[in-house]
């Protein structure tokens, strides 16, 4: 059995989940692409405006069909030179914004999964079996469901199969709106179960041993043997680190290739995805299983 040495939060450099998302490699990459894309789009639109202003007044007042039907073909060339790049840049910007928001959701999913883990960890510390082991471990499933619920808004669509957590989620939403005398929105019936099913199918968790190296760097060792003598148990105030990996659905055509790690089959057919990962660390407040000593001073009756 292994127990983690106590680590001060100042050494770990713990930051809010949104701060970790913004400063992550993917967050910085999206910010750079968005900045460059916005600049190029402004240049393309400015060029189109300048071309438009340099044309005679009679041409500017003509219809689009009349301009495109010009014998010289100049209008058609100008239209293609401006519209095609502007459309491509717009698609890239849209996919980048969705990717950036997806990165935020994955980091939030890691946060809620870790929050679930620090609730479940004491059960493992009491010797009740492995912790965050596999799909057969209730603690693992509870933490994974916590992450999946957080990721449902940015997930794709996966067939729920007519049962399981996804259908129960849809039924719960229906019951919620019914209890308040309201009709459930259309997305509850069309999307809720399929989106949660996608999140559950394409989200995995890992448990890491968190320690500080000789030079003060934080080291995360992935735990591959959660059972037996090598099982990781947690003591009071031990750091608990959970990693979340999610296949983020990419929905923008052509521009998705900029971030895609592969393709897979979903309800909408073969779609692209990007593997987004995040970790979150929280300290276990702990507990004392031993009762305090009896007081030696006699109490008044």
UniProtKB/TrEMBL annotation:
Membrane-crossing residue ranges in chain numbering: 26-52, 73-94
The UniProt record lists the keyword Transmembrane: yes
Source domain of life: Bacteria
This protein's record includes keyword Membrane: yes
Keywords: Membrane, Transmembrane, Transmembrane helix
Annotated protein name in UniProt: TadE-like protein
Annotated organism of origin: Algisphaera agarilytica
């Amino acid at each position: 059995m292994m127990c983690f040495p106590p680590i001060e939060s100042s050494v770990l450099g713990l930051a809010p989940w949104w701060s970790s998302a913004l400063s992550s490699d993917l967050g910085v990459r999206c910010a750079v692409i968005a900045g460059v894309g916005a600049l190029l789009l402004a240049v393309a639109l400015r060029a189109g405006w300048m071309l438009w202003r340099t044309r005679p007044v009679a041409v500017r007042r003509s219809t689009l069909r009349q301009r495109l039907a010009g014998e010289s073909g100049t209008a058609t060339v100008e239209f293609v030179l401006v519209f095609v790049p502007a459309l491509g840049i717009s698609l890239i910007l849209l996919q980048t914004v969705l990717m950036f928001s997806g990165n935020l959701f994955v980091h939030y999913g890691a946060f809620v999964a870790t929050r679930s883990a620090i609730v479940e960890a004491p059960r493992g510390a009491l010797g009740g079996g492995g912790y965050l082991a596999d799909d057969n471990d209730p603690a693992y499933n509870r933490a994974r469901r916590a992450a999946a619920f957080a990721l449902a808004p940015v997930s794709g669509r996966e067939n729920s199969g007519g049962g399981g957590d996804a259908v129960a989620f849809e039924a719960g939403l229906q019951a919620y709106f019914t209890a308040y005398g309201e009709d459930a929105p259309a997305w509850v019936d069309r999307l809720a179960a399929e989106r949660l099913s996608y999140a559950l199918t394409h989200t995995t968790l890992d448990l890491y041993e968190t320690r500080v190296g000789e030079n003060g760097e934080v080291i995360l060792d992935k735990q591959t043997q959660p059972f037996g003598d090598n099982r990781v148990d947690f003591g009071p105030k031990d750091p608990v680190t959970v990693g979340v990996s999610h296949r983020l659905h990419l929905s923008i055509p052509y521009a998705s290739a900029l971030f895609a790690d592969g393709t897979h089959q979903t309800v909408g057919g073969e779609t692209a995805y990007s593997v987004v990962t995040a970790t979150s660390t929280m300290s276990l407040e702990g507990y004392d299983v031993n009762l305090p000593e009896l007081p030696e001073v006699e109490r008044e009756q």
